[in-house]
Design goal:
With 170 residues, this protein is mainly α. It is 66% helix and 0% strand. The longest helix has 28 residues.
């Protein structure tokens, strides 16, 4: 799977740890990771909607309906990164999310796994919002929007399979 313009870590390796959040480079690292997660989600929802024969039609529609929202999240982050002068390809990112989703064997497994990832991303966004609220309200507002949207994305796993974030991440 091609994820241009991102630079992907070689298979079996981890990306570099994000730099300190109080620095511009550290913020760029977190935004790059978030943008890449959104791009992987776009790819994954499209792929899942056509791959899983066991997915109920309503779930397939819901996955397809999420793609424009994930695209918006990606565009908001990438646009803000451009405003701040951050390069998407400056540092490598991991395609671990896509790799873990693409081996799921059932719609339920995929749905729960991506819901767990969306919840982890939502929690990270909430922490970033708290950190940036006073110093970078524009970036904080983008992540506030994303965190709010992710609630419905995570809820799909409960609606269709009874999974809630409190049950633990898959």
């Amino acid at each position: 799977m091609e994820f241009s313009p991102f630079k992907i870590t070689p298979e079996g390796t981890r990306p570099p740890k994000p730099r300190k959040l109080g620095t511009a480079a550290g913020l760029g690292d977190r935004m790059r990771t978030a943008a890449f997660a959104e791009l992987q989600a776009i790819t994954a929802f499209d792929w899942a909607a056509t791959t899983y024969a066991d997915a109920p039609p309503a779930l397939r529609r819901a996955w397809r309906d999420q793609i424009p929202e994930e695209q918006l999240h990606y565009d908001l982050i990438v646009g803000r990164m451009a405003e701040l002068g951050f390069d998407l390809a400056e540092r490598p990112v991991s395609r671990g999310l896509w790799d873990s989703l693409s081996v799921c064997t059932t719609a339920e497994e995929f749905c729960i796994k991506i819901a767990g990832a969306e919840e982890r991303g939502r929690q990270a966004a909430l922490r970033l919002i708290d950190f940036l609220a006073a110093t970078d309200p524009n970036t904080a507002a983008i992540f506030r929007r994303i965190a709010a949207d992710e609630v419905a994305h995570v809820a799909l796993a409960e609606t269709h399979f009874g999974w809630k974030p409190e049950k633990g991440n898959p």
